[in-house]
Amino acid sequence: MSLFSWPHTVNVSTSSDSETALRPERALLTPAWLVALATLGVNDHLLKGAGILPGGLTGKLSDFAGMLVAPALLAALMRVRSRRGLLLSHVAVGAVFSAINVSGEAAAGWSALMGLFGAPWKITVDPSDLMALPALLLSWKALTPAMTRPASPALLRGLEGAAATAGVLLSVATSPAGPEWEEGEGWWDPVYADVYVQNTGDEERVVRLRSLAEGVEIDCFEVEAAPELLLSEGIFGAATAWTLPPGTTAPARDMTVEAPCYAVLVEADDVPSAVLFWQHGDFAMEWAEGRSEEPIMAPGAVQIADVITSVSTKLVYQPADPQEPVAGACAPQADSGRLAWSSPPEGSSLEILDARVGPDGCLAVDFAGISETWYGCVPAGSFPFTAGEAVSFSGSGERLWIEGASASMVLSAGAELPVLKDTVIAARFDYECSPAPDACGTAARSGRLTAKRGEGATVAVPIGEPVLLEGAAEGLTLHLAHAQSRGVVNTSCSEGPAAVGADVELVAVYRANP
Fold first, then answer.
1. Mean pLDDT of 401-421
2. 3-state class of 375 per DSSP?
3. CA pseudo-torsion sign 278, 284, 289, 292
4. Are strands 196-199 and 301-304 parallel, antiparallel or unpaired?
5. Where exactly are the structural domains of the chain?
6. For residue 506, what pLDDT is reported?
7. Are the C-beta atoms of 289 and 249 separated by less than 8 Å?
8. CA separation (Å) from 121 to 41, 48, 103, 136, 182?
9. CB of 181 closer than 8 Å to CB of 245
10. Separation between Cα atoms, residue 282 and residue 114, nearest integer Å
11. At 434, is the secondary structure helix, strand, or coil?
């Protein structure tokens, strides 16, 4: 009996439809299943990597099609005959799909398991793929009715076997890295990339490649000076797992994504992790052998054996131990002293009823005639207004002006410095120290301001120390709350602007001279 043959005795139910013996193989001939299978094949073999559709779309298209193809195929191969068995087939597909998309360990295990059957898989751990799970319900609703319909056993035997065979082949081809080979035999897909990794060891190994996480921004030229210090593990995202037999090769990054520079964390079992960093254009795009008995010595080749190395001297870096202090590192700057303020109340000439400091050190300001309270976290003593004064607010976002009869105040945050009347200010950053990543992976240099008012001398404005600049009619006091230049920013957990570069927060107060 062949793999896809089965008894064709028809079981007739005398009770409810729910007790009718199912024939999942019959679903393999329905238009819905065949269209999903065709979508899977065309998408994986023609569209992926071709640049016709965005990479994110082709990935999700395979996920949705796979959720329609896999449960009925599994049920047919397992010769399921009950709704309970069909339900378990759907649950099993959903459970495996969920596990390999949320767990790097599960993805590596699945990749290794498929490698035992001669079909090593390339798996990208991506929790967003779980949006395809509702397609399992569509599979149940659309395909279960076909499993109860009578059909000619002779016709079914050939057609269902062919459909099941195609389903197995195309399902396995959804994410494979390529067919496995025995020593001296077989092949492996050639790789077209600028940088690629090759397993030059004697044993098969699972290699996990992690590019920068979404929301991470880096200054390519800043990072180039010290990738091993600035690129910490916390800024890398989900892993793409490859099972690489000896001598085989995989691309180091997603070749559908183009950026000014690239950073990849390489992890492999029993091998110290390494960071790859290179500028766009450092290495030419070229074809690399999918399998080579000797290490590939091209500039963009990375070899993985007992350690991770490369021919190029500026490509592979050993990341610094996060537990070890970095010699000469810039002093970290806490976020506790940052500025913050609520949206200003509407109206002009708002009379202040009360301005009080709360337990958190922030101001709460109440106004006559309105119930809205304005909150502002500013340096102590910088708020120049008192009860009974009338003020007006203007500006929004990263700049807020507050005008009164005897004083005015500007609150500024972000990459741009405010324009102040009769005063020139500039940010200066400490390039004598090395930026070291904080807990979020953000790496920055501390800074200060310099200010020159009118014909006066240029003075330094350090963080946390107000500086008074005298004037003929009014004095200007500058309060620097925060000043950094950031080479790496993890916007998912760091305060400040969502971009690399200057991050300066300042309060400027003009007061009329007595």
1. 93
2. strand
3. negative
4. parallel
5. 17-172, 191-317, 340-512
6. 96
7. yes
8. 16, 15, 15, 22, 17
9. yes
10. 35
11. strand
CB 343 within 8 A of CB 357: no
DSSP E strands, 213-258? 216-218, 236-244, 249-251
Q: Hey, what are 31's tokens?
A: 């238009």
Predicted local confidence at residue 152, as pLDDT: 47
**H helix count then E strand count, the chain:** 8, 26
**Cα 4 to chain center, whole Å?**
42
pLDDT, average across residues 262-287: 93
Q: With contact defined as beta carbons under 8 Å apart, do 37 and 55 qualify?
A: no
Q: List the structure tokens of 491.
A: 């916007």
**DSSP per-residue string spanning 191-216:** EEESSEEEE-SSS-EEEEEEEEPTTE
In sequence order, the 6+-apart residues with CB closer than 8 A to the CB of 321 are: none
C-alpha 109/C-alpha 107 separation (Å) is: 5
**Amino acid at the residue 43:** N
Q: Which residues pair with 474 in a beta bridge?
A: 512
Beta strands 271-279 and 316-317: pairing type? antiparallel
Q: Is 391 exposed, middle or buried (0-12, 13-18, 19+ CB in 10 A)?
A: buried
The three-class DSSP label of residue 297 is coil
d(CA 207, CA 144): 39
SS3 of residue 233 by DSSP: helix
295, 331 contact by CB (below 8 A): no
Q: Which residue has the tokens 């099972």?
A: 243
Amino acid letter, 30: T
Full 3-state SS string of 75-134: HHHCCCCCHHHHHHHHHHHHHHHHHHHHCHHHHHHHHHHHHHCCCCEEEECCHHHHHHCC
Residue count of the chain, please give it: 514
Rounded distance, CA 211 to CA 268, Å?
Answer: 15
Question: Given the structure tokens 């004064």, which residue do they identify?
Answer: 389
In 3D, which of 396, 329, 402 has the Cα closest to residue 365? Answer: 402
Q: Full-prediction pTM beyond 0.70? A: no
Mean pLDDT of the chain: 82
Pick from 134, 146, 152: which is nearest to 34 by CA? 146
The neighbouring-strand residues paired with 275 are 265, 317
H-type alpha helices, 144-189: 153-172
Q: What is the pLDDT of residues 345-392, one digit of tens each?
A: 888 889 999 999 988 889 999 999 998 999 999 999 899 999 999 999
Q: Is the distance from CB of 509 to CB of 408 less than 8 angstroms?
A: yes
Position 334 scores a pLDDT of 82
* SS percent in the chain: helix, strand, coil, step 5: 25, 30, 45
Q: What backbone torsions phi and psi does residue 485 show, to the nearest 5 degrees?
A: -120, 115
User: What digits encode the pLDDT tens for the residues 14-73?
Assistant: 333 344 678 888 888 888 888 888 887 777 667 665 556 665 676 678 888 888 888 888
d(CA 251, CA 253): 6
Cα(448)–Cα(462) distance, rounded to whole angstroms? 5
